UniProtKB/TrEMBL annotation, chain A:
This is ABC transporter ATP-binding protein. It comes from Paenibacillus helianthi. It holds the Pfam family ABC_tran. It is found in: Cell membrane. Keywords: ATP-binding, Cell membrane, Membrane, Nucleotide-binding, Translocase, Transport. GO terms for molecular function: ATP binding.
UniProtKB/TrEMBL annotation, chain B:
It is a peripheral membrane protein. InterPro entries: AAA+_ATPase, ABC_transporter-like_ATP-bd, ABC_transporter-like_CS, ABC_transpr_CbiO/EcfA_su, ECF_ABC_transporter_ATP-bd, P-loop_NTPase. The keyword NAD does not apply. Residues 18-251 form the ABC transporter domain. Its main location: membrane. The gene is cbiO. It is found in: Cell membrane. Keywords: ATP-binding, Cell membrane, Membrane, Nucleotide-binding, Translocase, Transport. SMART domains: AAA. This is Energy-coupling factor transporter ATPase. Belongs to the ABC transporter superfamily. It holds the Pfam family ABC_tran.
Length: 299, 286
């Protein structure tokens, strides 16, 4: 396990009148080298949970184990500096944290602060750019002159430049256009599959992450409502409704067709392309449901 | 100028509340960010503004209430031609909900934040309280009134920002990707609020969005590309136009994509309204 939480609770402003418990009795495991999605309605505790993953927040109760570091509630925590390099946290709107006048300076800022030599830091920056699928020519550009999608990727690259084993991203695709979103998700999947990094993505747009996530954790009111594989989630999409989330079209269509043909145990087909291929192969499919053809929408 | 909408105006029925004639914007005249945009939007219409990241969508709406100075052309909002002496009047007509709600918080609590805008309008106390109650209930944030904006989640912040704008009852409401941080349930809720605003008939809605469901719910789509108006069309026509979709970096809604994928495999189906309808069409004898 890359990350393990045992009976973790977290309360903001614990010793004040305004104390507010954001997480209740969370026990979860996030396996190494897999892509895990975390979802939940707004205010369900997603962003709080993330900040436990590299010690920005410490548990009020319970134990957080990240890689080989254990943080126990009420105890003095171990040295967190090495952990912060190994667990890269990408916050919402990471491009707002960019501040240097070239992309390269922004990317080497972190590695230099963790004590790397300038040469090593620059090498890391180049590697991180390639990992995010960005052209090295952008290194000399002003980050604020990049397009929205490029800026977001460059900001994520600045976290990758520290070569983290675990990459945690809070709503990485928010406000990007759909094509840039799909590209970014594909790039993050590659980080996991090709580089072997543990990737954790918090999202409220499950549709785009469903086809690629290995595992899901769903939060409701600061408690775990579900953890398991994408397949298990696809077998019971109502769990999403109970968490106050919408059921994405892709999941709804798969669930209905899987139910009709008894395919519940199979790998879910959560893209339009893979589902269409499956439908074409199913017995008794009427090939001309109607002849009106393309474009006569009901909507 | 779009002829169809000019005709509507000429017919005397509907007033154009937003009128742009040859509007341009740029820091350097050689490289305009927006170039020669003309469009006329009648009162009560719900318009989606689409286009790839960085194509000038936010810039265009910011020109309308002079958050950015236009470098050419004429802008008329609710009958006021935009100029130094009309900026105040125009800003009272337009409410803006920004992409990132952190950029528009003023108050120390949610309640103060919503009241701030109402105080600016010099409303009587009873009216302020009435509106506070109405819009916090509408947006489901009545439990958050005493909280500091910093305590809220991203989606909660966005709902507060929307409530504080709607409470000012502007005739034109501009949403700059206001739903981008909302989960699906809250997005559906926002769509219902917008639909309510439309049937109310008092609001003209401009919505910058990449979201297929939001675009489908609107009346009209303005597509920006390369600093110009690439298309002025309907949502249905947009989603049928693969070339335009690609230009705007948009993806069609899932049922549309599924129908297209099925058609490319020789299965002729319409865009299904639901999964049940698809199953009934494909396997009527099961």
């Amino acid at each position: 396990m890359a990350i393990q939480l045992e009976q973790v609770s977290f309360t903001y402003a614990e010793k004040s009148l305004w104390k507010q418990t954001a997480l209740h009795d969370i026990t979860l495991g996030i396996p190494k080298g897999l892509l895990t999605g975390i979802a939940g309605a707004t205010g369900s505790g997603k962003s709080t949970l993330l900040q436990l993953f590299n010690g920005i927040l410490k548990p009020t109760q319970g134990t957080v184990k990240v890689l080989d570091v254990t943080i126990r509630a009420g105890e003095k925590s171990p040295k967190l500096l090495p952990l912060r390099r190994r667990v890269g946290l990408v916050f919402q709107f990471p491009e707002q944290q960019m501040f240097e006048d070239t992309v390269e300076k922004d990317l080497i800022f972190g590695p230099l602060n963790f004590g790397m030599s300038p040469e090593e830091a620059k090498e890391r920056a180049r590697k991180a750019m390639l990992e995010m699928g960005l052209d090295l020519a952008l290194l000399s550009r002003n980050p604020f002159r990049l397009s929205g999608g490029q800026m977001r990727k460059a900001a994520i690259a600045s976290v990758l430049a520290m070569d983290p084993e675990i990459v945690v991203l809070d709503e990485p695709t928010a406000t990007l256009d759909p094509v840039s979103r799909a590209e970014l998700i594909a790039q993050l999947e590659r980080l996991c599959r090709e580089q072997g990094r543990t990737v954790i993505i918090v999202t409220h747009r499950m549709d785009e992450l469903l086809p690629v996530a290995d595992r899901w954790i769903l939060l409701k009111d600061g408690k775990i409502a579900f953890q398991g594989s994408g397949g298990e989630l696809a077998a019971d999409p109502d769990i999403l409704t109970r968490c106050g989330l919408g059921v994405p079209h892709s999941l709804r269509y798969w669930h209905a067709i899987a139910g009709q043909f008894g395919l519940a145990g199979e790998r879910p087909r959560l893209t339009a392309e893979s589902l269409a291929e499956l439908i074409a192969s199913l017995p008794g499919t009427v090939r001309s449901g109607n002849t009106a053809g393309m474009g006569d929408a009901h909507e | 100028m779009n002829k169809a909408y000019q005709d509507v105006e000429n017919a005397g029925g509907v007033l154009a509340v937003i009128q742009l004639d040859g509007v341009s914007f740029g820091y350097d005249p050689e490289h305009p960010i927006l170039h020669n945009i003309s469009v006329s939007i009648p009162q009560g219409q719900w318009v989606s503004i689409v286009g790839p990241n960085g194509c000038g969508k936010s810039t265009l709406v910011k020109l309308m209430n002079a958050l950015l100075p236009k470098s050419g052309g004429e802008i008329t909002i609710c009958g006021h031609q935009l100029g130094e002496e009309t900026i105040g009047a125009i800003r009272q007509c337009i409410g803006m909900v920004f992409q990132n709600p952190d950029n528009q918080f003023i108050g120390a609590t949610v309640e103060e934040d919503i009241l701030f805008g109402l105080e600016g309008l010099c409303l009587p106390y009873a009216e302020m309280e009435e509106r506070l109650r109405t819009y916090t209930l509408k947006l489901g944030i009545e439990d958050l009134l005493a909280k500091h904006p910093g305590e809220l989640s991203g989606g909660q912040k966005q709902r507060v920002a929307i409530a504080s704008i709607l409470a000012m009852k502007p005739g034109i409401v501009i949403f700059d990707e206001a739903s981008s941080m909302l989960d699906e349930a809250s997005r559906d809720e926002l769509l219902r609020i917008l639909q309510g605003m439309r049937s109310d008939g008092q609001y003209t809605i401009l919505m910058i969005t990449h979201d297929a469901d939001e675009i489908l719910a609107s009346d009209r789509v303005l597509a920006l590309h390369g600093g110009g108006l690439a298309a002025d069309t309907t949502p249905q026509a947009l989603f049928r136009n693969a070339e335009l979709l690609e230009k705007c970096h948009l993806l069609e809604p899932y049922p549309w994509r599924l129908a297209r994928e099925l058609q490319s495999r020789g299965i002729r189906v319409d865009v299904p309204a639901s999964e049940k309808e698809l199953i009934d069409t494909l396997w009527p004898y099961n």
